[in-house]
Amino acid sequence: MSRKIFVNLPVENLNRSTDFFTTLGFEFNPQFTDENATCMIVSADIFVMLLVEPFFQSFSKKDITDTARSSEVIVALSADTREGVDELADRALANGASPHADPQDHGSMYGRSFRDPDGHIWEVMWMDPAALEG
């Protein structure tokens, strides 16, 4: 059985978040989209559910993390090339994201990170395929 991953993130403004991630090239599944949530497609088996905060709160008795003060999760995405890392991070920053940390360059591994408009941390990483082989 192939497992799927659904990351659930609270958002303040669903339209703003959907617009932001659309500019990054993501698509959304209309079957799982309404005024409370949308399903962002990352890959065939990975999805991010963007849930308006009151709807997100209905799934948990805990407070929603104040992303201006705390980190709840870092979502890491792979890129096919170093240039792909820069392209996605630059597009995010040009469309309302803020930088999270300095770029990390370890030769065979390169990454950049940003905070989306709701403050969630996204890291884009590339790893040299030759380094993975040996």
What report would you give on this structure?
- It contains 4 helices and 8 strands, in the order E-H-E-E-E-H-E-H-E-E-E-H.
- The protein is of the alpha/beta class and 134 residues long.
- It has a 4-stranded mixed beta sheet.
- The chain is globular and about 45 Å long.
- The relative contact order is 0.18.
- This is VOC family protein.
- Pfam families: Ble-like_N.
- Residues 93-112 are annotated as: Disordered.
Question: What's the short story on this structure?
Answer:
By secondary structure, the chain is of the alpha/beta class. Helix content is 25%, strand content 38%. It has 2 domains: 1-58, 2,3-Dihydroxybiphenyl 1,2-Dioxygenase, domain 1 (Roll), CATH 3.10.180; 70-134, 2,3-Dihydroxybiphenyl 1,2-Dioxygenase, domain 1.
Topology diagram in text:
Elements: E1 5-11, H1 14-23, E2 27-29, E3 37-43, E4 46-52, H2 53-57, E5 74-78, H3 82-94, E6 98-105, E7 109-115, E8 121-127, H4 129-133
Parallel strand pairs: 1-4, 5-8
Antiparallel strand pairs: 2-3, 3-4, 6-7, 7-8
Pfam families: Ble-like_N (PF22677)
Organism: Streptomyces axinellae
InterPro entries: Glyas_Bleomycin-R_OHBP_Dase, Glyoxy/Ble-like_N, VOC_core
Query: Gap between N and C termini, in Å?
Result: 29 Å
Contiguous low-pLDDT stretches (5 residues minimum) are: none
By secondary-structure content and strand pairing, the structural class works out as alpha/beta
Main sheet properties: 4 strands, mixed
| Total separate domains | 2
Oligomerization category of the chains in this entry = single chain
Estimate percent helicity. Answer: 10-25%
**Count of individual beta strands:** 8
What is the CATH domain class of the largest domain? Alpha Beta
- CATH second-level architecture of the largest domain: Roll
Q: What is the 3D shape?
A: globular
The largest beta-sheet arranges its strands as 1-4-3-2
> Which H/E pattern describes the elements?
EHEEEHEHEEEH
Mind telling me the C-alpha Rg?
A: 16 Å
So, the CATH homologous superfamily of the largest domain? 2,3-Dihydroxybiphenyl 1,2-Dioxygenase, domain 1
Average pLDDT reading: 95
- Stated plainly, the CATH topology of the largest domain is called 2,3-Dihydroxybiphenyl 1,2-Dioxygenase, domain 1
Strand content: 35-45%
What count of helical segments does DSSP give?
4
